[in-house]
């Protein structure tokens, strides 16, 4: 039986981060993962992360995965792939299936970072080929470069459903609707807004009645539900689709921890182990980090992993109490900032009616996916001035500040509180570099020149679709609701390494449309 200082189960963001931190303190960790590629969900995530520099903000998930793997290699972390951990025992022994053989390992400590699995909702036809989880769709698109389907309905409006819907559009799929039984959109408003302006409708307080098709999906029927989530007769709507994506939440994969005898608790976020602030479970030497200890974003999982790695180093005598406290303090600040704002754990399931600044929440955004024209002016990032200037349609308190760092001239201010709404400083002249537009993880920033002197103006917007429009091309401008507002002409398309594949598309529209035109579509 082989023995290691630390055995890590799961090579996702939490597991790799813990192994790296432990290795930096002198431990020799080994990481087992059942997949053929390490990195967990990171390599499916082609969008830019939220947060601050400490949270890898404005960096795409797969690049963060590459960086983690490189750091693990530099620190001598051993990663064994295609290795399924079959059992975890209180004596900190694990059995691992590698190929057709079962191997036994003993660890002085164990870190379980097994992540979570997708939930499923049973409805008539839910086993029909073509009904897939949103994670499966991401795997097909972003790892194997295969379109999941041509016409897709998304069930679920949390961040996963919203992000995957956008990626489906990028892959060339038509997303016919986003449907959710809840009365309000569950994910970030900026995620909803960027698919709403592409013309994708939202059907809240609706869910699937049935999926039709004998050998494959050929249609789906939805209907409104009442407060008890019972179908309301006569509200049915039918869509011809070939794919239904399901994004109705995740459940922690905590079975191994239960097997090891760890105390467990049932929470609204799933069945999870009881852990202290370091990720230590009730069984000495067994720790947990990431989604297995409670569903959060990958940014949080990486920080939790670092904290657990340092705690394990302390548990085994490689790091003294002062060193652990110092590491904990630096990481807890970064983790705490991610747990603030409208989407903080304390606000889950609640309707937040005002921002931290006391501004009324956009109910249109929560119910239809976009901020209405008569609501948008109330937010501090939406201003008017002569010449080109940023318009920031960031309307919810979420932990994110790359725009502030991106502006070399200081036109944009968020302040010390990372969840504050961004403010445009009109006494500072914008030079139109576009770095704020490219850096915004929510694609919520636009550069606007309301009047170029000829009855027209320009709007520079983020654009992440191929093929790119060409200069001089004429098409139509879509509003926040995805409907045509006017004709538009492409003035320029800018791409730069610093923009990290977020192209800046500038369109020419009538002056009175510059505060409404938010997407470009070929005629």
Task: Chart the SSEs and their pairings.
Blueprint: E1 2-4, E2 6-9, H1 13-24, E3 29-32, H2 61-74, E4 78-80, E5 83-89, E6 93-98, E7 101-107, E8 110-112, E9 116-118, E10 131-133, H3 134-143, E11 151-155, H4 159-170, E12 174-180, H5 189-196, E13 202-204, E14 206-212, E15 219-224, E16 237-239, E17 243-246, E18 250-252, H6 255-259, E19 264-267, E20 270-273, E21 286-288, H7 298-315, H8 321-338, H9 363-368, H10 373-376, E22 388-392, H11 402-406, E23 412-413, E24 423-424, H12 435-439, E25 445-449, E26 456-463, E27 474-478, E28 484-494, E29 503-510, E30 519-522
Parallel strand pairs: 1-7, 2-3, 2-8, 3-4, 8-21, 10-17, 11-12, 11-17, 12-13
Antiparallel strand pairs: 5-6, 6-7, 9-18, 14-15, 15-16, 19-20, 22-25, 23-24, 25-26, 26-29, 27-28, 27-30, 28-29
Helix pairs in contact: 1-2, 1-7, 3-4, 4-5, 7-8
CATH class of the largest domain, named Alpha Beta
Poorly predicted parts:
none
Distance between the termini: 67 Å
What gyration radius follows from the Cα positions, in whole Å?
24 Å
Give the strand order, joined by hyphens, for the main sheet.
Answer: 22-25-26-29-28-27-30
How large a portion of the residues is in β-strands, by DSSP E?
A: 25-35%
Largest sheet: 7 strands, antiparallel
The number of helical elements comes to 12
Helix content: 10-25%
Number of strands: 30
Structural class: alpha/beta
Shape: globular
Mean pLDDT: 95
């Amino acid at each position: 039986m082989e023995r290691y200082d630390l055995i890590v189960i799961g090579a996702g963001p939490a597991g790799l981060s813990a192994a790296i931190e432990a290795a930096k303190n002198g431990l020799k960790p080994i990481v087992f993962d059942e997949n053929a590629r390490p990195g967990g969900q990171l390599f499916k995530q082609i969008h830019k992360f939220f947060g601050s520099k400490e949270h890898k903000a404005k960096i795409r998930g797969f690049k963060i995965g590459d960086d983690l793997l490189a750091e693990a290699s530099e620190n001598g972390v051993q990663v064994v792939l295609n290795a399924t951990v079959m059992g975890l025992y209180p004596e900190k022994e694990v059995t691992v299936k590698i190929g057709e053989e079962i191997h036994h390992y003993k660890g002085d400590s164990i870190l379980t970072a097994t992540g979570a699995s997708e939930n499923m909702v049973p409805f008539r036809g839910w086993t029909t080929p073509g009904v897939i989880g949103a994670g499966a769709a991401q795997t097909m698109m972003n790892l194997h470069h295969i379109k999941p389907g041509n016409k897709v309905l998304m069930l679920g409006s949390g961040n996963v459903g919203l992000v995957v819907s956008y990626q489906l559009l990028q892959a060339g799929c038509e997303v016919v609707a986003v449907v959710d039984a809840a009365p309000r959109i569950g994910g970030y408003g900026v995620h909803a807004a960027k698919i709403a302006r592409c013309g994708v409708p939202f059907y809240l307080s609706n869910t699937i009645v049935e999926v039709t098709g004998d050998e494959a999906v050929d249609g789906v029927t939805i209907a409104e539900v009442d407060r008890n989530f019972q179908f309301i007769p006569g509200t049915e709507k039918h869509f011809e689709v070939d794919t239904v994506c399901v994004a109705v939440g995740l459940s922690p994969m905590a079975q191994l921890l239960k097997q090891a005898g760890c105390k467990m608790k049932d929470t609204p976020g799933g069945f999870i182990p009881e852990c202290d602030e370091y990720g230590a479970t009730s069984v000495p030497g067994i720790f947990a980090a990431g989604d297995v200890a409670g569903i959060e974003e990958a940014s949080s999982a990486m920080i939790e992993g670092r904290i657990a790695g340092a705690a394990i180093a302390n548990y085994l005598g490689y790091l003294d109490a002062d060193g652990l406290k110092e590491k904990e303090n630096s990481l807890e600040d970064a983790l705490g900032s991610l747990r603030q704002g409208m989407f903080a754990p304390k606000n889950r399931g609640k309707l937040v009616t005002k921002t931290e600044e006391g501004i009324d929440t956009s109910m249109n955004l929560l119910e239809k996916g976009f901020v209405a024209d008569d609501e948008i002016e109330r937010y501090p990032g939406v201003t008017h001035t002569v010449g080109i200037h940023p318009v920031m349609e960031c309307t919810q308190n979420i932990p994110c500040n790359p725009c502030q760092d991106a502006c070399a001239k200081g036109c944009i201010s968020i302040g010390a509180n990372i969840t504050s709404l961004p403010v445009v400083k009109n006494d500072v002249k914008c030079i139109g570099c576009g770095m704020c537009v490219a850096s915004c993880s929510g694609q919520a920033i636009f550069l606007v020149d309301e009047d170029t002197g000829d009855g027209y103006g320009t709007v520079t917007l983020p654009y992440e679709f191929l093929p790119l429009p060409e200069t001089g091309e004429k098409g139509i401008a879509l509003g926040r609701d995805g409907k045509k507002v006017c004709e538009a002409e492409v003035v320029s398309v800018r791409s730069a390494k610093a923009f990290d594949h977020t192209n800046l598309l500038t369109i020419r529209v009538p002056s009175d449309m510059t505060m409404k035109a938010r997407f470009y579509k070929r005629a």
